[in-house]
Structure formats: C-alpha cells, structure tokens
Hints:
- Strands 1-3-2-4-6-5-10-11-9-7-8 form an eleven-stranded mixed beta sheet, with helices on both faces.
- By secondary structure, the chain is of the alpha/beta class.
- The protein has helices at about 5-10, 15-30, 35, 45-60, 100-110, 135-140, 155-165, 180-185, 220-230, 260-275, 290-315, 320-330, 335-355, 375-380, 380-400, 425-440, and strands at about 40, 70-75, 110-115, 170-175, 190-195, 215-220, 250, 280-285, 360-365, 405-410, 415-420.
- The protein contains 16 helices and eleven strands.
Amino acid sequence: xxxxxxxxxxxxxxxxxxxxxxxxxxxxxxxxxxxxxxxxxxxxxxxxxxxxxxxxxxxxxxxxxxxxxxxxxxxxxxxxxxxxxxxxxxxxxxxxxxxxxxxxxxxxxxxxxxxxxxxxxxxxxxxxxxxxxxxxxxxxxxxxxxxxxxxxxxxxxxxxxxxxxxxxxxxxxxxxxxxxxxxxxxxxxxxxxxxxxxxxxxxxxxxxxxxxxxxxxxxxxxxxxxxxxxxxxxxxxxxxxxxxxxxxxxxxxxxxxxxxxxxxxxxxxxxxxxxxxxxxxxxxxxxxxxxxxxxxxxxxxxxxxxxxxxxxxxxxxxxxxxxxxxxxxxxxxxxxxxxxxxxxxxxxxxxxxxxxxxxxxxxxxxxxxxxxxxxxxxxxxxxxxxxxxxxxxxxxxxxxxxxxxxxxxxxxxxxxxxxxxxxxxxxxxxxxxxxxxxxxx
Length: 441
C-alpha cells in the first residue's frame, strides 16, 4: 500500500497506527537486508509516535493524511539523541541534540520515524556504493531491489530500498546531483527533487549547500505531494483531474537519445504511452546545457571540499579513496574561478527558462544506464569513473539549472522517466507527474 492508502485506512479505522508500526518494525527485524538498508532503527521513538497517532485517530483529531504512517530518514537528517553520521566514518559518534527542521515538522504532522538509512559517503556519489562506512562493501551498501548483486543508486540508497523492499511506507532523502532520482529510478519508486531552498536544510548534513535539496521517495506521486507539504508546513496540491491532454513536453536531445538499450527502451515506451494519453511531445535541445555541464567540476567539488576540508584532512584514511579523490579535486579551483562560474551558471539558468517557457515540462530518461555490478565497481577503477559520471549525467541537468524534478518508474525494471519544471513549480510538476503516472500504470 502507498503511504496515502495507509493514511486513508487509518482515517477509516481499518488500520491502527500502533499495529502498522509494529508490522513495519517486525518486517525490519526479520528481513535479511535490514542492516544494509538502515544504519539504525528507532523502535522506542516509533512506538511512542504511533501510540500518539492512534489516540488522535480514535478521537477524530488526526493532523493530516499521513498521521500515523511510518517512514525512514536518510542518515544526514539530524535526529535528537540518535547517531547521524552521513555514511562516513569521519562522523562516527556524531549525535545531535535536536531534529532537523524537516524531521521536526514531519513529527508534528504525526508521521512515525522508523529509523535512519544508509547513504553514499557524505552524499558524494550517485552510485550508492559505500565500502568505508561500516568496514565492507556489503555492510555499507544496500542491495538493489531488482538484483542484490547490483548497486542501488545514491546517494539516498537506503531511502529508496527501504521503500522498495517494503521496510518503510516512504523515505526521505536529499538530492545534490541526482541523489533522490537515481535510486528512485533504479529501485522502481517515485522520487521528487525539490527546488533549492524550497525545504529547510537546517539540521541536514551538507554536501554543497547551494545545490543540496530535500526530497521524498515513495510509491506514488500523491505520496510525494503530501510528504512535500508535511516537510514544508503547507498544503498538498490537489491532484484530482490531472491530465496530459494538450500538455506540451520537450523531449530533450541528446540526453533522451544517448542512452543504453534497456533504459532507452523503457523510456521510449513510456513516452509513447504519454502521447496516447494526449500529451504533445516535441523533440529538441536547449542551448547552454553542455557549457553548464562543463562548469560542474568548478562548482560542486570546491564547495564540498571547502565544507569538509578540515574534517577530511584530519583522517583521510577513513574515506573510500575514490570519494576522497573527488573531494580533493575541489582544492584545485581558485576563488575567482568559483565565483565567475556561478555568475555564468546564473545566466545559463535564465537562458534555460527562456528557451523552455513554451513547454509544460522537459522530459528525459532519469538515468541513461542500468545499475552496475557492485563487485566490479570495487575492482575496476575505470569502470567506476565511467559509470559514476554517466549515472549522474541526466539528473545533473536539473540541479545545474535550478529546477524541480520528478522520476517515475517506466514499468521496465530499474528505468525511469524524469520530468523537469521551473524552480518553485512543484505543484505543476506533481500534477503533470500524477497524469503521467496514470498513463504509465
């Protein structure tokens, strides 16, 4: 059941939040991969929150649709009294005193916190591979829901797999270069990348703050809409009557064409179903994307390394060497080049908005490749570099251009269709996503 369906069942008296929470905790206790998905479970907190939700339901004072629904949280959201280590041995033993603001808002809305989920080391990888945090690849890397030998995608790897394996009704992750949408696509769930600054980053362990965003991973677009509203303290958009009829989409070249066979086939079939549902789909390109892509190395790594330099250089041997190398790459960029690159990116963002203004959304495959083999990534350095860069290629368009984005399952395992809308247009994006979801079902 989706989080929304569970919430409706609670409201109708068919499910008690206490029983529901115990069912999820029981599933976690018995599942073979729980320790690879969750860094820590919080059963005492979950049960206390579930009891409070149960009382509200009995007294007719529920706080919203998702009151009493259990979800997971990526291990970069501070949670009071519980270790929050962002997938890094560098932060071992870091225990915050307060919840991250988005977690606190979710708690006030009645959601139940099941625990914290695994992630890429300090969120700096789209693969989800993390051999350094718990001492081995298996201990720190969740299994892909379609094949445990493959990586799950990252950096919100545990958030996606907690949903995909049925160990949470939804998961909250973060997205700096694709970290919600990549694992969503590879584990066949829905993932929402919000606009930068739409949701609070207070109490969220940073990677590159100007790109960092908070986003939900769930079974349905409706779930993502309600989770966004909960974390924002607002109201979810009304998705009723959402339609593709007459909606105009730009199928972005070459990003929709230059993909591998299986993701390409899944995406093409999904586009055809959207067209049959009434969508007007036009193929074209947007000037300036390649220039923005070339700026990536000057924008992401310097901010990330500037944030973590002192911590990293105090104990670099605790890091996975390939992640350490990515961070240290930021040391080679000068301050003037960093500032000039941001000024140029701001101009390219304005150009993107002008060129795409006539479309309801831009569409492209979420990820151009399928999840790679975990063990080969550990033994083949060239393969690791190639797959990591390709994995983030399409999703990074949304981050660089400052957009909001949504990844939908296509029906072909581990392939996704991504919609991109202008900044702060999540309501439009979610309505389009709901209509597309219906067409793809």
